[in-house]
Design goal:
This protein is α/β, with parallel strands linked by helices and 479 residues long. It is built from 17 helices and 13 strands. Helix 4 packs antiparallel against helix 6.
Amino acid sequence: MRLLCDARGKFREAFMHKMVDLSQGQITVACHLGYENSDYNGTSLQWLNSKLGRAGSIVAGRRYSGKSMSLLASVDYEQILETTVEQLYRTSPIYAYRAQDYLDYFHIVVDAAASIIDERKITHALFYCVPHLFYDTVFYQVAKAMGAKITVLSWSQFPGRFFSMNDIADLGKFDPEGITADPYPIEQGSVPDLFYMEDKWQQEGQTGKISKKAVFNLFKHLIRHDPLKLFNPIGIKADISRISGLYAKLPDWRDPFAKFFHTNELAYFETIAQFENKKIDLSQKYIYVPLHNQPEMSTSALGGQFRDQALVIETLARKLPEGWKIFVKENPRQSASARGPMFYHRLARIPSVEVMPSNANTHALSQNAQFVASVTGTVGWEAIRLGRPAMVFGAAWYGSLPGVVRYSDALDFEKVAQIKIDHAQLQADTGALVSKSHAGIIEQLFFPLTPDLDHDNNTADVASTALKLLRQEVSPTFG
């Protein structure tokens, strides 16, 4: 096997090197994507900088080869183009590149990736995370279009386990029929323990005060973008007053300008602040839609056209039964990097939409909803544990579990709301899913949650499983 391997960071490199050792010569890493010590620094494509890997630049010095046509001529071209261009907004300098520049850049990188895959005679590709940045998405899509055998690993909600698939579109596609496994214990009515979500985000509390960091970032913004205003103390005072007024409306846990200030961010937070004193009536019939933080993998890579979450809400509104509402709650981590006042203008045009305040309790909103709707969010997993149906618009890992329906135009929302979830069946099917997952922790984010983790054993477990998946000795979790 001549392997293309996306392995960023020392822990993923350890997985890769151990797997090669275990293969006893069967695997050659023909192209390692990572940081500076890899063949190619994939993140240089994401950040639009010139940092090199051992083999130099992915795109510099390459002439057009034409080998990219297997992807560019595919029926999915426009969808892939739109997805990858959106992913560049994650890290590129704000508004530094126009749409046409991104289009041209996409074509150059796709052709360069195709040349590398052809030159290095790549037969297999391994990704230790669902491709969701610009560079790994391009290499994933090009390798797939050129016929390489793909293996993708993904972290899971189950401690010490990870998922696998051969196509990211297969995430969540799983048939428990015929699998013998112990039921996975789920306390009925319980909510999952999500370490990255804080309890204070669901509770009423004090409003905030402008921080020193916010003032510092305001001046940094003015120096870069509006230096003449530095000589206008009245104007600066007005800006500080405007920012202070915003902090006074938002919960004290939300410090919108602690890391970054831009006038676009100010307009965004002023828009959502207008909903902070809204009264909530949970006795109404409503669909609950908690928004994803964007940009992130759950929408950008797994949402297809519905990574546009306003489109999700517009789609729901089009089929909404008479008298129902759509309750929308903003993600507590969201900034204006991928959301702005125009997003909320789209929602304001829908009479049935009500935007919830920041401190609205998401668990209560799920519990009392007719059903919850999300692209791929964990709220769906929470809902079915609470006995409420979940509608998903993208590739959600829990998409085949009882109580979950994938959106289609043929769905009757009132019938979806009437779905009864057999909790014993939910535990049985979840147990079957866990049995199809693999032992090991593949995300560094989870290492601190397992302080007694034996990293050598974990590396060996992950490497052994990846090797078996590449050899097709074990079946992937999904697909």
